[in-house]
Amino acid sequence: MLRILLLHNYYQQPGGEDAVFRAERDLLRAHGHPVETLEFHNQELGTGIWAKLKAGLFGFYNPASARRLRQAIEDFQPDILHIHNLFPVASPAVLWAARQAGVPVVMTLHNYRLICPGALLYADGQVYEKSVHQLFPWDAVRRGLYRNSRLQTAAVAAQTGLHKLLGTWQTGVARYLVLTEFARRRILDSSLRLRAEQVAYKPNFIADPGAPQPDSQRAGHLLFVGRLSPEKGLQTLLTAAATHALPLVVVGDGPLRAAVEACASTTPSVRYQGPADGTGVAAAMRHCRALVMPSECVEGMPMVVLEAFASGTPVLASRRGGPGEMVKPGVNGLLFEPGDPEGLAQAAQALLADEALAARLGTAGRASYETLYTPAVNYAWLLALYQAAVAEARDKLPAVAKPMQYEHA
């Protein structure tokens, strides 16, 4: 059994990366692997100007993090190190420490931070790719893509850029795991200059909630679940719902909460439910006609889409990023152009008017889950990638770019 050390740097606000880190930890342990975790928290930086200064400095190289990893390696003797996030506290110092200890590294890229300081390939309501091929992305700094701060954006750009010059990203990681084929293509065609075999597609997964009951009754409304923010396409969704009286339930919280509440107060078909925990989201998913994902940024692999598929719920998604690949039009959902309220409304009306169509797409969504997004499938994927990285490090077997065959939209 491979001994696996998992490393993760938590942001100040909880997010999907944290959930994936914990899920993979539990999955590996359930299959009998000795697993230890090394966790870093941005709260360690404190608050205020001093915290920002430390984040800027530690983002280049944090010697304390390197020492912690060296000690963990000495104590646990792992066969492989799997990193989910290293910014800013863990820092690229952990890659150098792992290399010195002879431990191969696998790193999941949950976002595009290494090739764009804003991490989302999104700016001013549009896809933004000017930074992808640049060693130091001046335009991103000018725009202040990271936290609306030119200074903090410059710090992130300098951190990733320095380690491009040093070759850290090329030599410090045996396998990068990406969530979509779009991400794989974009990462390979970037300033990182990685080898093709270094970047492998591996989706997220969720525990099986159980197949939906064939006689279950669904209400005739759309469901949005997620952060209420501009990049999620909330304004497009609200415009479509208000203009066409689309029945819509919104679950979540964020900076556009007031806009959602205002729309709900003036549009009888729209209801704002507020934030919900996992149990509440699962119940809402089983009850709706379809999940709607109008994201205008380049999403990775939102867990809410996996939850929809697993519950037999069809997905209406914008033709962009992860959802745009996961949803096969006319098979397990429908697609529309991002930022197009009329296209969204047309797709929504097709499902709202045809219960049989929605049921058929939902059944295919469940099949998509069973094929690609179950714990069992994901474990096989992870194990093959780990074994390839370990074998390559030991110079025994050739590298494997894709550990299993799959059909992917």
TrEMBL record:
GO MF terms held by the record: glycosyltransferase activity
Residues of the Glycosyltransferase subfamily 4-like N-terminal domain: 52-149
Domain of life: Bacteria
Keywords: Glycosyltransferase, Transferase
Domain Glycosyl transferase family positions: 222-366
Keyword Glycosyltransferase attached: yes
Family matches, as InterPro entries: Glyco_trans_1 (IPR001296), Glyco_trans_4-like_N (IPR028098), Glycosyltransferase_grp1 (IPR050194)
Pfam families: Glyco_trans_4_4 (PF13579), Glycos_transf_1 (PF00534)
Record-listed E.C. numbers: 2.4.-.-
Protein name listed in UniProt: Glycosyltransferase
